Amino acid sequence: MEYKAVAFTGPSGSGKTTLIEKIVRRLESERRLAVVKHDPSDKARFDREGKDSDRFFRAGADVAVLSPTRTTLFSHRPRSIEEIAGMFGSFDLMLVEGLKTLPLPRIGVFRGAIDPDYLPVLQAVAVDGSVDLDTASLPRDIMVLDLNNLEEIIDWIDHHAITLKGTKC
Q1: How far apart are CA 110 and CA 117, in angstroms?
Q2: 50 located within any domain
Q3: DSSP states of the chain as a string?
Q4: Which of 30, 1, 42, 18 is closest to 111 using CA atoms?
Q5: Would residue 89 count as lying in a domain?
Q6: pLDDT at residue 68, rounded to an integer
Q7: Taking Cα atoms as reference points, which of 89, 90, 97 lies closest to residue 39?
Q8: Do the bridges between strand 162-165 and strand 2-9 make them parallel or antiparallel, or are there none, so unpaired?
Q9: What is the pTM of this model?
Q10: What is the predicted pLDDT for the residue at 46?
Q11: Which residues form the domain of 116?
Q12: The pLDDT of residue 12 is above 70
């Protein structure tokens, strides 16, 4: 299974989730989408404490919950992006939030100022009027996108997302 993938990176509160949500809402009628979100501080919770699935997970099992409208999986072992893609099944575009170590085309999302620590992994930045580009010292090869221009960002994705292959589960 082949799919396109692109990633988004930036400081907490910069608007990464909001931007990805807008992209999903805009494209959901024309493309099959998957989103992978990195949780570096391990804040995501599977179920309320003490409920069945939480108890199974805390006991050490990988747990999947199937319902009429969704499937939820929590695993004790890290998965590769290819394994995750295989779990999603067939889709066209994967949007990844975070995971700076993945070699994906990456848009940095910034408000107020551009953090230079992110620049080595970026191919583009999406910024609003709160960022002074004259003082940002961006390398010439990093494209500047308007954070409020969804079509411009989607066009960048269409031209820069790379093709990956998922692993069947």
Answers
A1: 12
A2: no
A3: -EEEEEEEE--TTSSHHHHHHHHHHHHTTTS-EEEEE--TT----SS-TTSHHHHHHHHT--EEEE-SS-EEEE-SS---HHHHHHHH-S-SEEEEES-TTS---EEEEESSS--GGGGGG-SEEEE-TTS-GGGS---TTSEEEETT-HHHHHHHHHHHPEEEEPPP-
A4: 18
A5: yes
A6: 85
A7: 97
A8: antiparallel
A9: 0.85
A10: 59
A11: 2-44+78-165
A12: yes
Residue 51: inside a domain, yes or no?
no
> CATH number for the domain including 106?
3.40.50.300
Residue from 19, 157, 12 nearest 94 by CA: 157
Any idea what the Cα angle at residue 53 is, between residues 89 and 47, rounded to 5°? 85
Q: Which tokens hold the place of 70?
A: 């969704």
Residue type, 16: K
Q: How far apart are alpha carbons 116 and 11 in whole angstroms? A: 11
